[in-house]
User: Fold this.
Amino acid sequence: MNTTREIRRHFASDNYGGICPEAWAALAEANSGHAVSYGEDAWTAQAADLIRDVFEMACEVFFVFNGTAANSLSIASLGHSYHSILCHEIAHVETDECGAPEFFSNGMKVLLMPGSNGKLDPCAIERMVDKRADIHYPKPRAVSVTQATEVGTVYSVEELKSIWAKTKQCGLKLHMDGARFANAVASLGVKPKEITWQTGVDVLCLGGTKNGMHVSEAVVFFNRELAAEFDYRCKQAGQLYSKMRFMAAPWVGMLKDGAWLRHAAHANAMAELLETELAQLPEARILFPRQANSLFVELPPSVIEGLHKAGWRFYTFIGQGGCRFMCAWDIREEDVRALVADIKRLIG
Ligand SMILES: *Cc1c(COP(=O)(O)O)cnc(C)c1O
Assistant:
């Protein structure tokens, strides 16, 4: 029986993807007997240790259910209610978290900045901070960067260093939304430390779900002082999972032999294949440099309509518009080729 069409993969989001074998196996392995609850178990300890190994640093690690919780609680831990956090105008914390960062910080204001290719411009940070210094303005406290960005680009080590230089100069903390951090590491071919604490990142939200897990993001504090009482923040926000071993074990499966980077590299390669194919079509205009696992393309409206009619799912409202084709860890070459074939057929 040919089940290819029945189990067709989509390009809407990497959270359409399934659970990868390594996470699944670890989950099954953790499902034996009893374990101490609320994160006091051996799986949770091992997962946190593996994250410390990955970053080559004695960071503080907390596991929460999703990225919205990771971002909002970590941002809240950076300051007080009268502070502000600077981010890109299309940052997930601004556009896709329903005000959770403001809510969990009791009112911290998110200040928005433009920037090409979804990236923050270090000079814009300085301008935003220098704009006002009086008591009537929400006091700038931190900068948030997304790595990889919402439009599938990646900050280089040099770009992060320039942002760090500005945050240092302005006395700001640095937060990183790493829902697709694995894709950025795989794309740059750097060590995880080179784009985090070695470029001044105080706290990272490390994505697990989009990387192939069933649930969980890790909040990783390189600046350990900021982690004080973070466990209480998690508990109060409903983010302390009582059967924590089932959130932690998949992290062990992902990290112990590098599956997290293999899956990310594969997803990146699938987006690259799509880019190579579409770059040959004059009707398809690629909107941003493809550096991670997504490709943004402008296509004729009739082609978009035809793709939707053919059953393909993808978003057209993310960032600054265009069709976003996102490759999950389990997108196969045949899925990319099937999509390309339909695009070519519709262009005619
Ligand atoms: C998906 C995503 C998140 C997390 O979203 P949740 O649905 O809350 O898990 C955070 N940041 C970015 C950039 C994302 O793409």
